[in-house]
Amino acid sequence: MFTKLKERFEKFLNEKNFVTDCLAKIEEKTGIHRRYVATGSVSFIGLYLIFGYGASLLCNLIGFVYPAYFSIKAIESSNKEDDTKWLTYWVVYGIFSVAEFFSDIFLYWFPFYYAGKCVFLLWCMAPVAWNGSQILYKRLVRPFFLKHQASVDSVVNDLSGQAIHAAESLTRGATRLVTDHVLAHPKSQ
């Protein structure tokens, strides 16, 4: 498995993309092989996630920037599969974010919390068959959703109806208020 990861890493370093272009420029200016620059950068980020101030921000940027970029690319492509892939990521990311909101007060005290969270988010966005968001969606989210879909639809429809009714009432009240104000204080001409 280590050999396979090393091969994928080497293959990635030789692809043509923004990251490898930056690594090539650094390699050209410093004379340090891009493999070492990339390994050093990943190591620094890992250590920063463990010991650094603002690790939460860095972790959230890692979990947001790459997926956001590829989500935009997916929207602009005609391929439906990449849309589904990134929508699945965002559903899992959203559920994780809500769960984290309620548990963060306890979890962030654990050592390596942000490093673990970052590994989890990287697993969820990984371009592999065992992608975390796909697995979690198929095994947890989808069955739960299908089981409770009718109930949730009913609540959403009720809330939508109440919101429309409230908006109509506010519009009528505002119209009446404005009309009464204009009639009570006509402009002098």
Q: Biggest β-sheet, characterized?
A: none
The mean pLDDT is: 84
Give the ordered list of helices and strands.
HHHHHHH
Distance between the termini: 86 Å
Low-confidence stretches: none
Overall strand count: 0
Structural class designation: mainly alpha
Explain how this protein is built.
There is one protein chain. With 189 residues, this protein is an all-alpha fold. The relative contact order is 0.06. The chain has seven helices and no strands. Helix 4 packs parallel to helix 6 (113-125), helix 5 (80-107) packs antiparallel against helix 6 (113-125) and helix 5 (80-107) crosses helix 7. The protein has helices spanning 2-13, 18-30, 34-51, 55-76, 80-107, 113-125, 132-184.
Short overview:
The chain has 189 residues and is an all-alpha fold. Helices cover 84% and strands 0% of the residues. Helix 3 (34-51) crosses helix 4 (55-76), helix 3 packs across helix 6 (113-125) and helix 5 packs across helix 7.
Itemize the secondary structure elements and their pairings.
Layout: H1 2-13, H2 18-30, H3 34-51, H4 55-76, H5 80-107, H6 113-125, H7 132-184
Helix pairs in contact: 3-4, 3-6, 4-5, 4-6, 5-6, 5-7
